[in-house]
Every structure is written in structure tokens, then in C-alpha cells.
Amino acid sequence: MNPVSLNIKIQGNGPPILILHGLFGSLDNWQTIANALSNEFTIFLIDLRNHGKSPHTEAFSYTLMANDIMYMIQKYQLVKPFMIGHSMGGKVVLELINLYPNDIGKSIIIDIATKSYPRGHDEIFKSMLGLDLKKINKRSEAEFELSKTILDQTVRQFILKNLDRDQNQQFVWKLNLKSLFENYNEIILEIKPSKPIINEILFIRGGRSNYILDKDQLEIKKYYPNSSFITIADAGHWVHADQPIRLVEIIKSYCI
Q: So where does this one cross the membrane (predicted)?
């Protein structure tokens, strides 16, 4: 299947870093980090397919997303760019490394392991799919409806960033909710290479997150023997939101 041309935002000057967001996210989630890095790097903020302003497709898999990124790398003639991926975006980076190990530079995987995960977003999907946007006139009304089932305000605010208005000023979801829900089993799949890959990869986990367990590190090392690990204290799954200054320090020291 042909790759799609992704929505991207480029800023800064220096060696290229590509940043990939997680499920329900968009490039906007990483703007603060991009601003902090753009004096020393050229930052490519990217909306993955079915997210943000990138094209909607029925098909959705890590292989498809990795090929979208490789298409972009070739389009901009980037040589071994640094890669950063958070959560689902981290698994896209891993699949990219699996498919094109010689074309990718050092990579940073944020708060996701190679393993498969249990279904953990069904309530969010149910809430979003059950929201009748035709009856919503204000963003606050959407938040009120979502608050009935999504109790965590931080999660609600994150989800609400996906609300947009169409040409008729009607609220719509920017992301392709139907495809993401139907392909959710693809999103939680294990990602591993057919043989060990020697690319340098830094795995960063949040100290308050359970996405990367101690035992996962042994499994990761089997597939990616040149992996290293850092835990950022006082950070949950959204490390970039909880501890942006510390994360930027780590990125700079790793990539320079």
C-alpha cells in the first residue's frame, strides 16, 4: 500500500530530529519540546496518519506508519535522522528501525516497551464515539459530556485537543476515530525484529508510569542489544508534559 504524505511542521536549524506523537495525539503536543530544541536541531513535528491534519485511511498499522515516515525522510533527503517517539509513536520508530536500520540514526523511545499491551482505551473510544457532536455548540459542553465517563481531567483535556470545526462551524473530530477503534488491536501489538538490531536506542520511562517494567528491559535488550534506559522521576506516561526540562536535557546530551 502506498505511503501517505503526512502533515508536518519544520523549525530550527541543525541535525534533524523527527518527533512522533502517541495515540489520540498530534504534533501540537510536542511544540514546547520542539521550541526548546530548535536552536541546536532542525525539528520535524509530524502528525501520524489518522491523527491531526494528516490524511485519514481505513488501513492502519505500524508497518504503514513506518513507511509513511520513510517516505518523508526520503522526500526531505534526510541522512540518518534522530528519531523520538512517544507511546504509539515509539512503536512506529521501532518498526522503522526494524525495516530500515541503516537509514535511521540514534533513537529515543519514550514510555513504551516492545511488548503487546492489554486493551486500555476502550472507555475513551466509547466516550468519544458516543458523543453526538451535532448537539455540541461549545467546547465546554463536550467536556461536560465526556466528564461523565472520562473522570481524569488531564485525559479529557488531551482528548478535547482533537475537537475542531468544519467549514460549517460544526464540531468534528480531527482524528479518524472509526479507523483507530477498528484497528486498535494493531496498536497494542508487540513490535520486534526478526533478528537483533544494533542501532543505538534510548528508552525513557516515567517514574510514575507502568508502561515499561524492569522485566521489560531484559526483553528489549534481546532485540536491541545497544539499548540504554533512563527513568525520569515524578513523570507519568506523558513524560514530555510532566518533566519537559529534564526531557530536553536528556535529548540534547544523547543527540549531540
A: none
